[in-house]
Polycystin-1
Amino acid sequence: WTFGDGSSTQMTRVAVANYSYLSPGDYLVEVNATNLISFFIAHLTITVKVLECEEPEVELALPPQVVMKRSQRNYLEAQIDLRGCIKYQTEHLWEIYRAPSCMNLDDSSRIHLPNVDVNRPQLVIPKLALAVGNYCFIFIVSFGDTPLSKSIFANVTVIPSKLVPIIDGGSYRVWSNTQDLILDGEKSYDPNLDDGEQTPLLYDWSCTFSSKSSAAGCSLNFSAKEGIVTISKAALEAGVEYTFDLTVRKEGMSPEATNQTVRTAPGCPP
């Protein structure tokens, strides 16, 4: 390699060379590629100019390790100080890599998110867009028509959200003791999956309290493992409040629980 400024020739074993010019001007770069049998010479004119602005400053107001929940929309925003520069058009770019850290990244680990604007200082990650795992987010600001760029990175961990247990009817219901009581927990779900991708949950029902019981606990002998369970009206007493617990489980996730209190009343349910 010769760089047209009178410096000594540079030899490399790869087709890439790094070089810095000390003065502005036009320089003719020449490279001679040879395998000791034949050779080929190529030329390129390089124009070096003095940057008419100071380098921009950029920062992310974030902790060293960012944690995002997969089930939520997440935001990252870069703070940019152009230091008064209006000479160049400013360009922004976010890059996302699936990697344990921001060291030794390669293109094969880069993530492309459809319909996500990566050319603004604020980055919006839709819910469920990223799988659970570790990522490196890089924000790059550059001046158009110049090679100058400034980048900053963030280590991001995407974690799963907890299972969501739901008993149809809310936390308190009034029910007629003339009808069988139906407890429905099938609206429980895994928030880390789309509605159409939900996988089966395991259910554990129990009665933990009844207002008629003299001791702490429930006078109703009840437990079940189905999503929807029915308690016979014959087992229910009018004017008694029962508290039912539902615990939902899934392999690889912590169990989550909720409860519902049901007051039985004579006559038709409201």
